[in-house]
Design goal:
mainly alpha, two-stranded antiparallel sheet, 9 helices
C-alpha cells in the first residue's frame, strides 16, 4: 500500500502523574462533557417562560452523569466483555482498566430521564427532548479521549489523512475516533441545536438524535476495526456497534413519525434574538 501523506499521531500520554494522584485524560474528557451539558442546559433554563430552573438542570445533569457512567460500564460488560466479567466479576468495577459503551450509557441516561421525570412530574419525552441537544458535545469530548488513548482505530487505508497508531501497528489507518467526534459530536450538536431553537412536536428532537446518531455510528463502523473479542457478527460483516445502532435508527424514525402524526408540542415561546437555544 502506497501512502503519499500520513498525518502524524500526536504523542500524548493518556494520563498525568501529579504526585500520588494520577489523572487520566479520558476521565477529564468525561468531566468536560458533563460540565458543558450543565452549562448549555442552564442557558436554556434561563429563557423567559422556559419552565425550568437552574437547580432542576443541575439535578438532571447529576442523574444523567450517573446514568452515563454506570450504564456505560454495565453496557460494555454485557455487550463486549461478558466472558471476561464471568471469569473475573471484580473486573466489572475496575474502571481504571477502561471499557465504556455508548449504547449502555444511553440506556443509563434514559433511566435517569425517567426517574427525573417522575420526581418533577414531567413527561418522559419532555425531559428527553430537553436533554438531547446537550449530549453531542459530551460525545465529542469522549471520542477525543479515545483519540488520546490511541484506541478504536480504523482499518488500513491510503487516504491522505491516515494515521499510524502506535497501539496498533505501523500501518496507516482511518482515524475513526475523529470521524465519530466530528459526526456524533460536532455535526449532531449543530443539527440538534438549530432544530431545537423552535417549538417542535413532542418526541421530534429525541427522534432526530436517535436517527442521526444511529446512522453516523453505523457508517463509521464500516471503517473501524471491530472489537477483537467479538469480531464481525451477523452476516459476517456487521459489528456489535452496528447491530446496536439499528434499533436507534428504527426508533428515531418511529419517534419522528409519531411526533408529526400527533403534533403535540411542549409550551415554549419563540426564541428571542440574542438568546441561545430552547427547551422542548
Amino acid at each position: 500500500m502506497t501512502v503519499l501523506t500520513v498525518l502524524p499521531y500526536p504523542d500524548i500520554s493518556p494520563s498525568i502523574d501529579l504526585g500520588p494522584l494520577t489523572i487520566h485524560w479520558y476521565g477529564v474528557m468525561y468531566a468536560v462533557g458533563i460540565m458543558l451539558g450543565w452549562w448549555l442546559g442552564t442557558l436554556r433554563a434561563r429563557r423567559p417562560g422556559s419552565g425550568w430552573t437552574s437547580d432542576e438542570v443541575s439535578d438532571l445533569i447529576m442523574w444523567s452523569a450517573l446514568g452515563v457512567v454506570l450504564g456505560g460500564r454495565l453496557g460494555y460488560v454485557l455487550f463486549y466483555g461478558l466472558d471476561k466479567a464471568i471469569a473475573d466479576p471484580l473486573w466489572i468495577i475496575k474502571f481504571n482498566q477502561g471499557g465504556m459503551s455508548f449504547h449502555g450509557g444511553l440506556l443509563g441516561v434514559l433511566l435517569a430521564v425517567w426517574i427525573f421525570g417522575r420526581k418533577t412530574h414531567r413527561g418522559f419525552w419532555q425531559v428527553a427532548d430537553f436533554i438531547a441537544p446537550l449530549v453531542p458535545l459530551g460525545l465529542f469530548f469522549g471520542r477525543m479521549g479515545n483519540f488520546i488513548n490511541g484506541e478504536l482505530w480504523g482499518k488500513p487505508t491510503d487516504l491522505p489523512w491516515a494515521m499510524v497508531f502506535p497501539s496498533a501497528d505501523d500501518q496507516p489507518r482511518h482515524p475513526t475516533m475523529l470521524y465519530e467526534a466530528a459526526l456524533e459530536g460536532l455535526v449532531l450538536f449543530t443539527v440538534l441545536w438549530i432544530f431545537s431553537r423552535r417549538s417542535r412536536p413532542t418526541r421530534a428532537i429525541s427522534g432526530v438524535f436517535l436517527l442521526l446518531y444511529g446512522c453516523f455510528r453505523f457508517w463509521v463502523e464500516f471503517f473501524r476495526i471491530p472489537d477483537v473479542q467479538l469480531g464481525y457478527l451477523a452476516l459476517d460483516w456487521l459489528t456489535m456497534g452496528q447491530i446496536l445502532s439499528i434499533p436507534m435508527i428504527l426508533g428515531g424514525i418511529l419517534l419522528l413519525w409519531l411526533a408529526y402524526r400527533d403534533r403535540p408540542t411542549v409550551a415554549d415561546p419563540a426564541p428571542v434574538d440574542g438568546q441561545v437555544g430552547s427547551e422542548k
